[in-house]
Structures are given as structure tokens and as C-alpha cells.
Amino acid sequence: MRFLRQLRRRQSVPILLVCGFSLLITLAARYSGTLEYLELTAYDWYLRTSLRPSPADPRIVLIGITENDIRRLQKWPLADEVAARALTVLLADQPRAVGFDIYRDLPVPPGTEELQRLLTDSQRLIMVMKFGAGGVAAPPVLARSGRVGFNDMIVDPGGIVRRGLLFLDNGKTVSTSFDLLLAMLYLRAEGIVPRADGEHPEYLRLGPNTIRPFAANDGGYLRADDRGYQFLLDFGGSRGAFTAFSLGELLAGKVPPAAIRDKIVIIGVMAQSVKDIFYTPYSRGMIGGGQAIPGMVMHAHVVSQLLHLGLGESRPLLSPSESEEICWIIFWCLAGGAVGFWLRSPWVFSLCGAGGLFLLWLATYAIFLRGWWLPSVPPAITFLLAAALVTAYMANQEKEQRTVLMLLFSKHVSPEVATAIWQHREQFLCGGRPRSQKVMATVLFSDLKGYTSTAESLEPQALINWLNSYMEAMADLVMVHGGVVDDYAGDGIKANFGVPLPRQTEKEIKQDAIQAVRCALAMGRKMEQLNKSWRHEGLPTGSTRIGIFSGPVVAGAVGSSQRLKYTTVGDTVNVAARLESYQKEFAGDSCWRILIGEQTRQYLDGRFRLRLVGKETLKGKSQEITIYQVLGINESPCQRLPGRRQTEMC
């Protein structure tokens, strides 16, 4: 609540506009696609650092065709005879599913008939095709069998695979992915079959998890190709290598049957000469630069993730809705604005800026570990941008406010008072200028007697020098005693004690009255010193009249935007002026006279020697005012001494 009140005092609308401007720049950069690369890089980093070293999925076994296998067979593509022999060995060891990740749209004799017989008879065998026009067709004998899946991969700019595919639709037929078919064969033995989600029938539910289809703007993506049924890959939560054997080891009988039984076996190419490789988020960075994985290993990761989801061992990686992401970005924009609002020091700003970014990273990383991908780059940019712009705006506002305050007060108050005014500018300024306020103050008026006659006898420059020596001396005394010089009028000075910062306690109000009277006495002593100096220089002498009155005043800035003046108005000001001009002739030989009203006397606590002048009706006033003359400081306890006149008091 305190923050909101201060924000209102400091022009909340411009600050919010600055934050809004920062937000618009960030959103424009995001929706133009400028930030997508950074967002995906951050996603890759989160994914790499969240993976824990652990064994790869033991339910999947790879049979890879290596460079040595190709050299030994001296033929590529793989002959149907070799493929049939490898499949026969595998099927004999009773795997739950076998995936053959090598195209067989055309026969590669010899052994074609034997391979076709195996493909027709084995319900545990899944073959591959490439989807769409210009792709690679399924083996003719399995054209309508439901045991052929596409092995297409979605590759993001930069060559990295971050999404898997479950279904593709060309407008006529819907095809199922190679990976999903393998996972379904395995899960069927566990009593798990795919079904529609209860709330969203168009979503696929696998075991306890619903796999929500990827949308074009999910996470850090912008207008991504979201055709088909896609989902975000987490690569099984493991960096470990899958159990793998070479084709040569399989054909030589070196693969133990226990390694195959009840497993998913994927046969594919690992040889570098056959360009079937892909990059993943952990193909670089912490794992090692430029590491690519064979296509069969990529399929193993996708199948592993589907098994984890179907068996309830993990949850799908999700991303919030577009509106939720914008709210997240707005939150960090306002947080940056708050940092810029509160902090001015470059060092503190740097520390808080770095701390804010660390907190953002920590929050998004913790949420990522819980299965949600929140944007991190746009919030970071808008946080820093809002913080910087609001800081610049506030610095400019402070510069303007300091300029206004210094123009109003720098020549009329002590450095201590000027510092206090600046420190409390929140309660003092409104709309870039001092706010009007009703305060309790003590007002002092002084006048230089003898100015008129002196003006007639001195040359202009000499007159100004004579008058300035008086004004400068008296104004310095006002500032020394904590007052504010309000105005110079000819040979007169108006000063206020208790402004511009309002007094909150009775003690402070009393102190202002005491300081005003002390200032007046100092002005009287200074007048005596000036007269002595003027006599020595052969200049005319003078005397000063001072009137002091305490009470409520209205303080504020008057004038135009080009020329402001901070002043006080009200009945208290009028009475102080009347006391100064009351019975202008001096009594006695003193060169100074100080008159105060009853309201001021009540605040003095007997600190000064006073003489009762009487009750008078001052000019322009209808009520009588009790007037006292200040004679000096009361150095003895407040008591009536024998022989003292009754009109003289403490």
C-alpha cells in the first residue's frame, strides 16, 4: 500500500506508460520472430541441464548397421536376404515389437520372397515409409496392414529436432508414426491402449497422460509449422546410451536372447556414410560440440518418451496459453519498472538487475523441471528495458524537480534545509511544482528604518551597496536559524519558519517560534554592528523593526511556469506585517525593535524577556491582539523580581 501511495505521488501514469512502451517493444520483437532463436536456445539449455546421468530406457534395444557391416556385406542397400535373416533371428527371441527403420518400397534381391513372407506373417514387425507426395511408399505387401508408420522428423531452423510426430494427415488419409506404432505394441501387453481424452476428444490419451497437440506459438516458437499431431520431446530424461548391437553381432549369434525378449528392437543404420543423422538440444553445449545421432537413436528417444507417458513414469512437457504467457511477460515488465522506480545508484541498479534476471532464470528453470515451458527471453528483455527506461525517466524527473526546488529555495534557505526539502520531495512536490498546503508556521517581517532619507542622499550605486549589505546580512541570519526567506520588498524582508516541510508535532511548532525570535534578536545585534561599520565608512545608519506572529498559513507556489515564487498567505502573515509597522517610531535609543503576538509568546516557554505593550486593534483587523516587545534572552528562571515593572515578563 505504501508503494502504491508513493507511486501515485510520483506520477504513476507516466511510469506505467514507460513500462507499457517497454512491453510493446518486447512483444513486437517477439512476434516479429526476432527472439525465437534465443528462446529455443534457452529451451535447449534448460533441457540439457535438467537431464540426469542415468541408464537409457532398458526396454529398447538397437541393432545398428555399421560401416564394418557394410564393408563385410559389400553391398548397400541391404539385401532382402540379409534383412530376412536378421528379422528371423530377432523374432525367434520373442521381442514385443521390432521396428525396421530401412525403406523397403522396392525389392532388393535376393531373398525378396522370404522377406515378404516375414512381413506378412509377423504381427510384431513395424516397417517405415516417408509421408506425403514425393516420399517413400510402404512395402507393397503391407500397404493396408496398419503395420507401417512414417519416420518423418520435424527439424527446426538450425537443424535441431525438438518435436515428435504422432499422426500426419494429407487431407485424404491419416498416417500413424513409426514411433507410436512401436510404443502401442509394447503398451498393449501392459493393458494400455490409446484412447480419446474425456474433456478434449480430439486429444490422444496414453495411459494416465493426455498428450496435448503442439500449437504454432507454444513456448518460444512463433508461427511454427504445427501440421499433424506434434508434441514436445524431452528425450527420456536421460543422457545414457541405449543398449546396442551391430548387425554382424546379431547374425553371428552374439546377441543373448535375454537382451531381446519382451523388448522393443529397432533396426537401422549407424554408418556415417549413410546420411541418416539428426541434431538434438543436447547434441552440443555440455555434451560436446557438433554431436549428431543416427535416425534410429532419435526414434528410440521418441519411443522411450511415449513409453514413459503411457506407463505414468513421466508427464508431457506443457506450455501455457498465449494470454498466460503475455501475463507472465507483463509481470516481469512491472517488476523491472519497480526496480527502476526505487533505485538510483548504478551499482545497486546493476546488482538488482542481475538479481532479477537470476530470479527469473531460477523461476523458469524450476517450473521447467515441473513440466512447464515458460518464456524466459521476453521477460528478461522487458525487465531490463523497463528498469532502464523508468530509471532514466525518474532521473530526468528528479533533475527537473531539483531544478524547480533549487530555483525556489537555494538562495533562501540553509544547505541543511535544502537537503531536507529534497529528501522529502515526495510529500512536497505535486505535478512538478510545490503542492499547496495549510501548515502551522511563524512569520517574520523586518523593515529598515531610514531607507527613504538615505535614498535621497546617496548615489544610486552607493545606495544599492548600502542596502545589499543590510539584506545579505539579515538573509544569512534567517537561513542560519532554519528559516526561509520568502520575499524582499524594497527595504523589507519576509521570512517563514515552519515551511516548506510541514511540522508534525507541537514541539516542532514551538521550536519554529523560538528560532524566529532568536533570529530577530540576532538581526538586532547585526544592525548594531552594521551601524558601527557604516559610521566608520561615513555612511548613513539605520534601524530595523521586526514583527513576528505564529499561526496557520497556506504555503504554495504562485506565479507562471516561467517564474514561480514559493510564499505564504493568510491572516497570520497579515498580522506579522502589521506588528512590524505598528507605531513606527522607536522608543528609546535602540536601533532595533521586535514585536510579537500572544500566539507566538505561548510557544516561547519563558526563554525570552518580554514587555507587555498592550491589547491593540491592528490596521485591517477587527479583533484585539495582545502585543509584546522582545527585550532579550531570559538568562534567569522565569520569576518576578522585586522592583521589576509589572509589564516586563519572562
Could you please describe the fold and organization of this structure?
The chain is an alpha+beta fold. The chain has three domains: 2-32 and 320-401; 50-310, no CATH class; 413-649, Nucleotide cyclase, GGDEF domain (Alpha-Beta Plaits), CATH 3.30.70. The protein contains 19 helices and 26 strands. The strands form six sheets. Strands 18, 19, 20, 21, 22, 23, 24, 25 and 26 form a nine-stranded mixed sheet that branches. Helix 5 (80-92) packs parallel to helix 6 (112-121). The longest helix has 33 residues, at 377-409. It is rod-shaped, with a radius of gyration of 46 Å.
Short summary of the structure?
The protein is of the alpha+beta class.
Portion in beta strands: 15-25%
Query: Which overall shape is indicated by the principal axes computed on the Cα atoms?
Result: rod-shaped
* Helical run tally: 19
N-C termini distance: 49 Å
Number of strands: 26
Q: Structural class, from secondary structure content? A: alpha+beta
Q: Low-confidence parts lasting 5 or more residues at pLDDT below 50?
A: 637-650
Largest sheet: 9 strands, mixed
How many separate domains make up the residues?
A: 3
Radius of gyration based on Cα positions: 46 Å
Helix-residue proportion: 40-55%
What is the arithmetic mean of pLDDT?
85
